[in-house]
TrEMBL record:
Signal peptide: none annotated. Residues 7-188 form the Ketoreductase domain. This is Glucose 1-dehydrogenase. Belongs to the short-chain dehydrogenases/reductases (SDR) family. Its EC number is 1.1.1.47. PROSITE patterns: ADH_SHORT, PROKAR_LIPOPROTEIN. Keywords: Oxidoreductase. PANTHER family: OXIDOREDUCTASE, SHORT-CHAIN DEHYDROGENASE/REDUCTASE FAMILY (AFU_ORTHOLOGUE AFUA_5G02870) (PTHR43639), SHORT-CHAIN DEHYDROGENASE_REDUCTASE FAMILY PROTEIN (PTHR43639:SF1). One of its GO terms (molecular function) is glucose 1-dehydrogenase [NAD(P)+] activity. InterPro entries: KR_dom, NAD(P)-bd_dom_sf, Sc_DH/Rdtase_CS, SDR_fam.
Amino acid sequence: MKRFEGKTVLITGSTQGIGAACALRMASEGANIILNGRKFDERGQGIIDQITAMGQQARFIAADVSDPKNVIGLVTSAIETFGRLDALVNNAGVERNHDFWDVTEDEYDFVMNTNLKGVFFGIQAFVKYCRANNRPGVVVNMSSVHEEIIFPHFAAYCASKGGLKMLTRNLATELAPLNIRINNVAPGAVATPINQHLLETPELLNNLLKNIPMKRLGKPEEVAAVVAFLASEDAAYVTGSTYFVDGGLTYHYEEQ
């Protein structure tokens, strides 16, 4: 039997990169998938087509998860779509590159609302559903190595991921009696659209690779494999943890 047979998974920000890889990986193991993004386009349709070809179901729900009202509505709609929700993968995230003294309030709010506030209230909506229906649940948050290590010029991003680290640990204790597990996955440098400039700039890429013991970038599928593990019963005794998927970067890192 496949690990997610008969289960439904909601993955935010899932039309490209790591989110799309998570959707495809979990669908390949039997899950029906709720995809999410700001708007439906050919990327979302392409993922739906691939999942359908696997024999699973997939639906897309548009929502800007930086707004708590939207993310609560997203969770509600996801439950209504397939009649159940077994796992929530909070993958959507944003970053802004600015000197600290140039960060505007709007930019700060955009990063914090997407990476932390929306996640907070999305988890809350999922937990309320689980409690009301006496159901177990699993939450996997997409954090970053920068919940642990510095990233100059990305202060708001680091603050959001540091907050997510503490939120996850706190909720692990509070939600355990409800049979709800929660963990973080912290990717390092992964070949995704968000790193396109890095991939196209040899000097920047080479400097980064010097800090990665495995001397390569990660693949979205490698992150998705860890997400699938944490969302499955194989990780039934794992909660409150962060799993680094970084080729050894975090504890080898030196800012250049």
